[in-house]
Specification:
The protein is mainly α. It has 8 helices and 3 strands, in the order βααβααααααβ. It has a 3-stranded parallel β-sheet with strand order 2-1-3. Helix 3 packs across helix 8 and helix 4 packs across helix 7. The longest helix has 20 residues. The chain starts with a strand and ends with a strand.
């Protein structure tokens, strides 16, 4: 059984409280694994693909800024570019211009004509290439690959899962 939450600190607290709750039933405790989502993702990724080199937020910001500077016609702020990367490209795991062009950018306040989207996609392609060259992945990539692997294998890593705050 999996018990998962969103932070390492909360996972540690849940693990300690679970030990108190089950008390003398040590065998029961051995059947429950407690993780933060990112820790769980890293563990499952390592079991299925090997060790993941995760790009930090700072690395992503730097890579996006460098990629944007390479495009002299870019007028988007680094903050906008990072938000577009996280909330659209990564959130929807967009891998092609056609996917990016056609995605509905729900909740995004800035409307983008095709010319601006094309420029943005050029920046994001550079970001992807830079990450690939550095052999880095993002957590969105990690979870996407895991989801594909688990779906194709037909075997879930846990029989039951409780996800805190889901």
């Amino acid at each position: 059984m999996l018990l998962a939450t969103f932070s390492d600190a909360l996972a540690n607290a849940l693990r300690a409280k679970l030990r108190r709750l089950i008390g003398n039933e040590a065998m029961l405790g051995e059947r429950v694994e407690v993780y933060s989502m990112n820790s769980l993702g890293r563990r499952l990724y390592e079991l299925n693909f090997g060790r993941a080199q995760i790009a930090t937020r700072e690395m992503l910001v730097k890579t996006i800024e460098e990629s944007a500077r390479a495009m002299p016609e870019n007028r988007f702020s680094p903050r906008f570019l990072m938000a577009e990367w996280e909330q659209v490209v990564e959130a929807w795991q967009l891998k092609s211009w056609e996917n990016y062009r056609d995605v509905t950018r729900l909740g995004r306040k800035t409307r983008l004509p095709d010319a601006q989207r094309n420029l943005l996609w050029s920046i994001f392609e550079r970001v992807r290439a830079s990450l690939d060259d550095s052999k880095l992945i993002t957590y969105a990539d990690l979870f996407s690959r895991l989801a594909e692997k688990i779906a194709s294998s037909g075997k879930a890593p846990f029989d039951f899962a409780v996800i805190d705050e889901a």
